Amino acid sequence: MTTTPLRKDAARNWDRIVAVARELVDQGTPLQLNDVARRTGLGVGTVYRHFATPEALLETVAAPRLEALTAHGRRALADTDAGRALEDFLARTVEAQVTDAALAPVAAASVDALPRTAELKESLWATGTALLDRARAAGAVRPDLAAADLVPLMCGLAYAVDVHAGSAPADRIDTARRYLAALLGGLRAAPTTERDPRAAGRTEPPDPR
């Protein structure tokens, strides 16, 4: 999808609006376009010309992280170790969830304000599904694990970090990694135990006691 380049002044305004929105999201302040206009020193009409709704602005704030995750997913598909590729992708995803406050609401929204957001979310879903299918085929994860299971598992993990971790990004990432390591332990396929063929037909001697 192509877009018409903005004039220099319009591009500066767009950048300023997105930068202020990023600050508000990081502070946990809900996006209100009138508030964004006041903080940027721009007219309300200017902000609305760039972003018709707060949801469109929030999706724009989240877009760089969505794009980075999409690019990482494509690289993960090239990894010949299917289990490692899936685990690395999940690690990147949950770290993004717990450090970027814009990501979770955009990912959870059932309707997207911008076509680009829908494209990125569809690409991420397809990539995650492909990585899981490869890992399952390689015997690296439980055979009954479905792609639809990963979403609530990752959301639950991110929620646990919100409840139990501090606000510093480093603390949140460390907590997320520990929780994910425990979760991945349960997702991995159980090792098969091969019986020693030499023991076939062998019986233990009776206990003399």
Number of strands: 0
CATH architectural type of the largest domain: Orthogonal Bundle
| Helix count, DSSP H or I runs of 4 or more residues | 9
- The rounded distance between the terminal residues' Cα atoms is 81 Å
Helix content: 55-70%
How many discrete structural domains?
2
Please give the radius of gyration in angstroms.
Answer: 23 Å
H and E order? HHHHHHHHH
The proportion of residues in beta strands is under 5%
What CATH calls the topology of the largest domain is Tetracycline Repressor, domain 2
Overall mean pLDDT: 88
Overall geometric form = elongated
| Spans where pLDDT lies below 50 across 5 or more residues | 194-204
